[in-house]
Amino acid sequence: MSSIKLYNPGPVNVSTDTYQAMSSAMIGHRGSDFVNLYSDIHPKLQKLFGTNSPVYLSTSSAWGIMEAAVRNLSTKKVLNCCNGAFSDKWLDVSQRCGLEAESLSAEWGSPIDPVELDKKLSTGEFDLVTLVHNETSTGVMNPLKEIANVVSKYDDVLLVLDTVSSFSVVPIDADELGIDVVLTGSQKALALPPGLALFTVSDNALEKAKSTPNRGYYFDFLEFHKNWEKMMTPSTPCISLLYGLQHQLNKIFDEGLDARFERHEKLNQMVHDWVQLHEFNHFAPEGFRSKSLTCVANNKNIDVPAWIKRMREKHSLIINGGYGKIKGSTFRISNMGDESVETIQQMLEAITDTLEDS
Amino acid sequence: MSSIKLYNPGPVNVSTDTYQAMSSAMIGHRGSDFVNLYSDIHPKLQKLFGTNSPVYLSTSSAWGIMEAAVRNLSTKKVLNCCNGAFSDKWLDVSQRCGLEAESLSAEWGSPIDPVELDKKLSTGEFDLVTLVHNETSTGVMNPLKEIANVVSKYDDVLLVLDTVSSFSVVPIDADELGIDVVLTGSQKALALPPGLALFTVSDNALEKAKSTPNRGYYFDFLEFHKNWEKMMTPSTPCISLLYGLQHQLNKIFDEGLDARFERHEKLNQMVHDWVQLHEFNHFAPEGFRSKSLTCVANNKNIDVPAWIKRMREKHSLIINGGYGKIKGSTFRISNMGDESVETIQQMLEAITDTLEDS
Lengths: 358, 358
Hints:
2 copies of one chain form a homodimer.
Chain A: E1 5-6, H1 16-22, H2 32-49, E2 55-58, H3 62-73, E3 78-82, H4 85-96, E4 101-105, H5 114-121, E5 128-132, E6 134-135, E7 140-141, H6 144-152, E8 158-162, H7 174-177, E9 181-185, E10 197-201, H8 203-210, H9 221-228, H10 239-255, H11 257-277, E11 281-282, E12 293-297, H12 304-315, E13 317-318, E14 330-334, H13 341-356
Parallel strand pairs in A: 1-13, 3-4, 3-5, 5-8, 8-9
Antiparallel strand pairs in A: 2-10, 6-7, 9-10, 11-12, 12-14
């Protein structure tokens, strides 16, 4: 059994107290115990999403809801903003659902350009835009406000936002920015095991879903809404993860949102300082860098897999050796979840120690 | 926080040792730690499914795979065998996917008639049959062998079997019976928290999926297969539940399959004896009764909700007050999972004690 600490960008380390909460006695999902649980976590989730809309609980990874969003909301053509492994794949997934879909692409490592987006949308071809806020593969945080402002100009275009690796790390203001669907997963900054996706849907988007055919059942937004009205879920939910979520939300609000955002900023800065000290480059340009993870360009051409093997063996921890087509030419270090100045310091010392062996 | 013991037919009680296993340190899902975990549980799952086909892991409830099966495998018309809440709903779900679908119905409480099935299939209209082995809502176990034999006569018709509440309670021989998809969930007899579905797909069914359009991504059988070849999953899986599954499978094979089936038979008989002693009737006819739960007809017209409230308050346990249109006119008692003669005896004493207060 592994006991390697994870500094890859998800799944991240899960604290003992979270596992403890997840071990609460099982309950039925059609009774008051479940209603009480959902009712307790719901207002806290709304605050994190920056919305007054319902927050739904999906027993799936975030990909389930990424697929659901295009399936529920597009009857015309999807514009997938593509600038990394996950956003690129969203185009493929849209097409696999039988939908018309096209990409607005930027190079991996570059952000999506709001001006280019405006040009595309002005053709009138599209009814849905998908955007990955924080491209976990490249460490690029897209300019959300500028992009949301562009989409807001087009009344018939909905915006779906993946916040998988930015949620609870930086503020998300779904209502203020007029974002129609915001979705995230449990295994990143919430520091829960994987298996739970959370999402919110605007009134406009729910209305649109009503006229979209073949939505199916498991990921039908209208089913989520119908059950949400009773504080329940369409299918049997991942109850233990919801107990874990309740616990993590209590920790988040005990810490305070501002303090939490500042902590992530500070831990991220520690990693950035390490990058500079060791004369590595960032893969993402200044001003568009994630606060939850750092994607480092391997400009010193080190043997990344060998390095990770050494840190695993000597210090029982790992970072990530890059994703997809930039595997090896980049590496990624996460500062998400329950990490502290002490643990990030220990991790940086461990990776430095094994780097110097190179 | 609830600590009520659950004798409703799922989610069922989860043992402390299972929660302990679920608390194993988090691992990444794209490395050797995950491959080792999947590789360890896979042969044991094949044995329980009675198959040499791959067993796939879906981060969803069983409904996800029930929907996936019709979406991946029907291009002509689905025949949904309907004789309870869950099998009836499968027809609705098929239609919501935009598929042609029709029901072969039996009264709630009655089994599906293989002769009627044969008549339907002889029309040549159908390419897929769905069957719920053990209707959790009515306590009816359908005559699987007879039904599978009928479907086997038709080369172009695939059979999908839901074993949600029969899996690991009675033997399932997927290969011997020629069943194309067998699926189950984690929160019934496996005594894990909900959030994980397990399923197996025959070569014929995988081949059929290749020509089925708009399968999407999250539940695409071919994606499951492609990732299975590396002992991985298409999306981030519910890792903690898989550690729990590994633990439960070890317990199952330590007990021995025959001993496990016998234990469930014995515990089920204890409930049946209680039904007879207290002069209740069974909702399901003799010969078609589930071994995992008992659906009892409320022929004595007792106030079931009040009774359940009393057992909850006095003995901190509950049974279930009936499902869907037979709520109140039936009640259900589960003997699934990690229960023993002692715990079933205690439960029966507690429900008797509070019944007598009626």
